[in-house]
Amino acid sequence: MNTAYLARVTFGYPAIDNHAHPLLSAVNRNAIPFEGLISEANPGQGLLEDAPNTLACFRATGQLSRLYRLSVEPTWEAVKAARGTVDYHQLCVRCMEPTRIQCILMDDGLGGVKELAEGYKWHDSYTYSPTKRIVRVEVLAESILLPIVETMIASGSIDSLTYATRFIELVEDAIQAAAADPEVVAFKSIACYRTGLDIAITTYTEEIERALMVIVLRYEMTRKLRLADKAVNDMIVLTTLRIAGRCGKPVQFHTGLGDNDITLKLASPSHMQSIIKAFPDTNFVLLHSSYPYTREAGYLTANYPNVYLDFGEVFPFLSAEGQRNVVRQVLELAPTNKILWSTDGHWWPESYYLGTVQAREVLYDVLSASVKAQEMTEAQAIGVVKRALFDNANKLYNLGLEPHIPSSAFEG
C-alpha cells in the first residue's frame, strides 16, 4: 500500500517542541562534553566515555556525518572535529532548518543555563513563532529559600515555624505570578530527581518546619542549597498543581529516563495516580516517554482525562529499534489526541536536529507499518502525525498558532 503522502506529511509538517532547554552560547560551545548529546550519564564518572560504543551513537554518528557533509569514514571523533570548524551561528542554522520546528516551549531552569547558555528569546532567530517559557518550580523555590536560609543563619533565629510559613507564602506568590505571565505556558517539576514521584497529596507546615532546620544545617556545612527534602518538595508540587489548575497552565513532570541521580523505582508515573486523581482540573504532562515505564504512562493517559504523554528524549538516547518500540507502546493505549512530541533539546543544536529527524523517521516507520497492515487508513495516520507534532500541543498550551507550511515543505 502506497504511503507516499504520509511520508510527505511526517517529514514536512511543522512541529511544536513541547519541552526543550537553551543552547550553549557561542563562547561556551565546548564547555560541556559533546558525548552528553547521546547519553544521560553524568560527566566525571567514566560513563560518558562508554557512550560512543552504543547503537544510539553509531546511528547519530552517521546522521551527523551526513549533516556536516563529511567525506571521511563516519566516526564520532570525526564528527566532533567537523563541528568545531563551523561558525556557531551557521551550525545552529544547519541543525535547526531541517527540523521544521515552528515553536519551542523552553524550560530555562536547567542547571548551568545562567552561566553557559543563551536566554530563551535568543532562540526565536531559528523558529517561525516565538519561544515560550516553562517554569521549573523547584529552581524557583530554591531562589526564594536561599535568602531565607541565609537570614536564619545570620540572625541565629530558632523561630523556624515563622520562616517556614513565610517560605510557603512566597512560593505560592511566585507561582501565582508565573501563572499570570503570558510568556509562561507551563510549569515543570523535577520531583522525580529530588524525592521521587510518590508525591503526598497533603503536607503540613510542621513537617516543612522540621525539614527547613535540616536544610539550614546542611547549607551551613556545604554552602549549597538543593531542595531534596520530601515534605518541602511535595509542598512545592502541590502548590503548583493547585494554582496551575486554577489558571489553566499544564504541569510537566520529568518521568523515567534520566541520570543516576534518579531512584529508578520511584521514576515510574504509576506513583502519581493519587495526585492525578486529587487534581482533576490540572493537566499533567508525563515527559520523556516515561521510559522504561512507557506502558504505565500510556495507561494513565488512557484512563484520566487530565493526563498527556510526551514521547520525547528517547531520541537520540535509544537505538532505532528501541525508539520504535517506545512509540508502539505509546500508541498501544494512549489516545492520539493526548500525545505530544519534544526534542528535550539542550546545549547543542545537534540535540534539536537528532531529536526531530529521528522522531519523524520512527513515527513514519511505525505508522506506515500499521497502514500497510490495514490497521488504519493513511488519512488516519496523517491525522496522528499532525496531532502529535503540532495540534495537541497547540491546544493544550493555548498557543493559538496556525501551522506555518512553507511552499517547499512537501517538496521531494
From TrEMBL:
InterPro entries named in the record: Amidohydro-rel (IPR006680), Metal_Hydrolase (IPR032466)
Origin: domain of life: Eukaryota
A UniProt-annotated Pfam family: Amidohydro_2
GO molecular function: hydrolase activity
Domain Amidohydrolase-related: 216-399
PANTHER family: AMIDOHYDROLASE 2 FAMILY PROTEIN, NODULIN 6
The name this protein goes by in its record: Amidohydrolase-domain-containing protein
Species this chain originates from: Cristinia sonorae
